[in-house]
């Protein structure tokens, strides 16, 4: 009888040991955000209506139709008067940038944000095991990641990744790289540095598909500190639950809808094609198909499957319906949407049937900071934190789009109640948001352009002054 007892006991103990070991090892593969720092340029780089008008006036290749197009784009963009531009714009040299202009723009961001996050976290540069830098539109040698390593004297065995050309969705690609390294390495710290170099990339021509980028993109950046160390788990802000990347680069129309190129006169710029919304929708839908089962409760998936089945059987599928049909609020508490433009935010809001409360962080970020490319998600997240919306256990869905064409998304779980850390870029201004109106003054000041005749139009001397 005693022998039989041990014959049953030993396998049970072994099974319990294997389960404990699996759970224990899984904790070493978690990906935590310890801290993040969004970049706030100095006030002398702020783009007011008057300054934007001066820049437009000195762009000599524009005609009346282009002025009208720009006015319409700016007025409907959702961008306010407190966004930031590179210093080259204020020097009036956007038509002839140098390599050093792009480097200086990035180093100003590095000096500010990397220094702040290291000082606040108490983590030494030599404790950083992984460095991922994503700046899409500038490539130099030595790389920007090497400049950071040299500036902060990081370790010689640091794992380094320097990404270019990845577009607005690059910060989640960087997080995915960190997550992959964390899966096979214990007790590591990682730093993700994300921004965009605008200095060398101003478009001075009159192609409307390329002018639009000048209206939307603004200076910004973010530094994110991540770890899989158990000892730092209680100090973490967020824990990564899942991450899904979708790439439609094999489709020619998706590949070409968002591309850096030259116009007919050989002037370089960033082309945004008319088929961009369609390409983004396709990538978004494919991405949702994968991530939905990971984040939604079974009851919601079953409800959606039942409704879809009944509609098919009754041949009652709504024509033109572009909504997801799934209630994402059953698995997600907050929506962190890339600020690619007002149309992007509106489109995602409609597709996911979100409320204005859900869209407020993205709208306010677009208004205050503009489209800061891959860094924009972190400004949106900081807004939620500054508004004290993020409570322990909440889930945050991040959604980003980028050239290629890509749609990347992930879900973070809030590890502890967040009340807006000392480095939050919104901390001193959050009480003034949301403002009573998001309307900018461009139409009021320059609306007279709409009534001009192309055959008699001439830019007045006091125009845009």
UniProtKB/TrEMBL annotation:
UniProt-listed Enzyme Commission number(s): 2.3.1.-
Family matches, as InterPro entries: 3-ktacl-CoA_syn, ACP_syn_III_C, FAE1_typ3_polyketide_synth, Thiolase-like
- The reply to whether Electron transport figures as a keyword in the UniProt entry is no
Signal peptide bounds: 1-25
Entry GO CC: membrane
Catalysed transformations (reactions)? a very-long-chain acyl-CoA + malonyl-CoA + H(+) = a very-long-chain 3-oxoacyl-CoA + CO2 + CoA
Residues spanning the membrane: none
Identify the enzyme class.
transferase
Q: What name does this protein carry?
A: 3-ketoacyl-CoA synthase
* Biological source species: Citrus clementina (Clementine)
Q: What is the lineage of its organism?
A: Eukaryota, Viridiplantae, Streptophyta, Embryophyta, Tracheophyta
